[in-house]
Specification:
The protein is α+β, with helices and mostly antiparallel strands. The chain has helices at 2-36, 40-45, 64-76, 141-159; strands spanning 47-54, 61-63, 84-92, 98-107, 110-121, 124-134. It has a single domain, classed as Nuclear Transport Factor 2, Chain: A. The chain has 4 helices and 6 strands; from the N terminus they run ααββαββββα. The longest helix is centred in the first third of the chain and has 35 residues, at 2-36. It starts with a helix and ends with a helix.
Length: 160
């Protein structure tokens, strides 16, 4: 009898985890779709008020209000950006209100990697922190490093 009860709770908790992962996947997909559809309000409703977006440029560490201001002109022109999910991994702990993920995306910049953290709020899962990175094949790293060397050095000098 104890074994049956334990199996029931194990199966129930796995089901919750699978459902939560599905909910998180839906939020992330909607978030990307709302950018492609230029739905500014819906896009930002899927982020927490204190959400952070870190872009591909080393200077892009956007707090929510700054990211809204930066991105508004892109949304206003009718299409912000179009990121299509190629692969996504979602991680949670049972009964946690925190989830983290990584994803490969097909974008106008080629394949990029997104990663981030979501928080389960009263309204559902919301993006708290998102990092977008351009992927560079290992055989091209030296070439890209040379290309950005001057920019990097200037930024290092400004930060120091």
């Amino acid at each position: 009898m104890k074994m049956n009860i334990a199996l029931f709770f194990l199966m129930f908790s796995i089901g919750i985890s699978a459902q939560e992962k599905s909910n998180i996947d839906t939020v992330l997909t909607q978030w990307h779709n709302t950018a492609a559809e230029a739905d500014f309000d819906k896009y930002f409703s899927l982020m927490t008020e204190d959400g952070i977006f870190i872009g591909t440029d080393a200077t892009e560490n956007w707090q929510n209000d700054d990211f809204r201001e930066f991105s508004k002109p892109y949304f206003d022109r009718g299409k912000a950006w179009n990121f299509t999910n190629l692969e996504r991994n979602i991680y949670t702990q049972e009964n946690s209100k925190i989830a983290w993920f990584d994803e490969l995306l097909d974008t106008q910049m080629g394949i990029c990697r997104g990663s981030g953290v979501l928080h389960k709020t009263e309204e559902g899962w919301k993006i708290v922190h998102y990092v977008l990175s351009i992927t560079i094949p290992n055989e091209n790293v030296e070439k890209v490093t040379r290309l950005k060397k001057e920019f990097d050095q200037k930024l290092i000098n400004e930060i120091d």
